[in-house]
Amino acid sequence: MSTKDTTYIYCDGSSRGNPGPAAIGVSFQNNDGIEFFFLSEKIGTATNNIAEWHALFRGMEEAIKQSIKKLKFRLDSELVVKQMKGEYKVKNKDLMVFKSKCEQLKTSFENFEIQYIPREQNARADQLANMAQDSKE
C-alpha cells in the first residue's frame, strides 16, 4: 500500500449485559474497501461504551505498529466519536482513561480523522466483535 493512501479503520465494541462479557472488532481496509487486517478480541467484562472506546484504542495501537500514518476511523458509536472530537465532555472516569490514551496515540499520525457512521455501514467490525463474543476461548 502506498504511503499516500488512507486506511479506513472500522471499529465496534459489544457488551452482552452492559456490563457483561465484552469484545471488540476492528477492520483495516484500503481505499477500495478491501480488508487487509482485522482484530477480533474478547476484552473481559465491560460496558458497551468501554468496549467501543477499547476498539478505537486497539485500532490506533495496531495502526502505529503497522506504521500507518493516514487513517480515517469509522465507528457507529456517536458517543465515542463526539467525545474524541471534544463535542461531548467525558464524565465517566473509565472512559476518561481511554480518551487520554487515545489523545496520546493520535499524535503518532500524520492525518487522523474520526467519523460516526450508521450501524449498517459498520457490519464487518460488528461481525468481528460477535465472532470474539461467540468464540470458546
From TrEMBL:
Instruction: Recall the GO molecular function terms of this protein's record.
Output: nucleic acid binding; RNA-DNA hybrid ribonuclease activity
Describe the location of the RNase H type-1 domain by residue ranges. 3-134
InterPro entries in alphabetical order: RNaseH-like_sf, RNaseH_domain, RNaseH_sf
Extract the Pfam families matched here: RVT_3
Q: Which Gene3D superfamilies match?
A: Ribonuclease H-like superfamily/Ribonuclease H (3.30.420.10)
Among PANTHER family, the record links this protein to:
RIBONUCLEASE H, RNASE H TYPE-1 DOMAIN-CONTAINING PROTEIN
* Protein name, UniProt field: Ribonuclease HI family protein
Query: What species does this protein belong to?
Result: Leptospira kemamanensis
Q: What is the lineage of its organism?
A: Bacteria, Pseudomonadati, Spirochaetota, Spirochaetia, Leptospirales
